[in-house]
Design goal:
The complex is a heterodimer of chains A (about 110) and B (about 110). By secondary structure, chain A is mostly beta strands. Helix content of chain A is about 0%, strand content about 55%. Chain A has no helices and eleven strands. In chain A, strands 2, 4, 5, 9, 10 and 11 form a six-stranded mixed β-sheet that branches. A five-stranded antiparallel β-sheet of chain A has the order 1-3-8-7-6, with no helix packed on it. Chain A starts with a strand and ends with a strand. Chain B has no helices and eleven strands. In chain B, strand 4 and strand 5 (about 40-50) form a beta hairpin. The chains are: A mainly beta (about 110), B mainly beta (about 110). The interface of A and B includes residues 45, 49, 101 and 103 of A.
């Protein structure tokens, strides 16, 4: 079983739609959680950290469920510019390594 | 601040040739990383360095060597390139264990 699993997509949604991505992780000792965004042929960039109480940044909401070892990302009012691959990232306790999911591809169409 | 820089941006090698990928960061980060990214495989860790003077193997270290030259620089060397090493290589740095990683723009390597 992969340490971090994501639905690869692609998710094709119209502008203005709400879309949700899910991610599961296998190691219960995981400590820090992130969502990264990667545009085509570019480097990954941090979208947002994920906190235990859940957090929101504009149209983006991240949730963490430690009991189910599950992370989600909700994007409201999708824009064409949201088209990208979204990477779920997990850091285990007391390590310097981040574990990346393979990513979920989002395509927003007009 | 330039962030994380990588050279070269593109490289074509013949099987058996050697080369070194350079990476530097100006954010005074302790940890640095080398990843490769292949279609359908996601980002895979090759080597990392938790601090100046230390390096550790990641998930796919075979065929690679690294040097943490100082706090700023972390290089990746391919001694004898193979077609299986055709990939996009990303360098990254990180301040601490709970912090985000910052990535360089990547090196696209083709081995013929």
């Amino acid at each position: 079983r992969k340490e971090v699993e994501q639905d690869p997509g692609p998710f094709n949604v119209p502008e203005g739609a709400t879309v949700a991505f899910n991610c599961t992780y296998s190691n219960s000792a995981s400590q820090s959680f992130f969502w990264y965004r990667q545009d085509c042929r570019k480097e990954p960039k941090l979208l947002m950290s994920v906190y235990s109480s859940g957090n929101e940044d504009g149209r983006f909401t991240a949730q963490l469920n430690r009991a189910s070892q599950y992370i989600s990302l909700l994007i409201r009012d999708s824009k064409l510019s949201d088209s990208a691959t979204y990477l779920c990232v997990v850091n285990m306790q007391n390590t310097d390594k981040l574990i990346f999911g393979t990513g979920t591809r989002l395509q927003v169409f007009p | 601040n330039a962030g994380v820089t990588q050279t070269p941006k593109f490289q074509v090698l013949k099987t058996g040739q050697s080369m070194t990928l350079q990476c530097a960061q100006d954010m005074n980060h302790n940890s640095m990383y080398w990843y490769r990214q292949d279609p359908g495989m996601g980002l895979r860790l090759i080597y990392y360095s938790a601090s100046e003077g230390t390096t550790d193997k990641g998930e796919v270290p075979n065929g690679y060597n690294v040097s943490r030259l100082n706090k700023r620089e972390f290089s990746l060397r391919l001694e004898s390139a193979a077609p299986s090493q055709t990939s996009v290589y990303f360098c990254a740095s990180r301040r601490g264990a709970s912090n985000e990683q910052f990535f360089g723009p990547g090196t696209r390597l083709t081995v013929l």
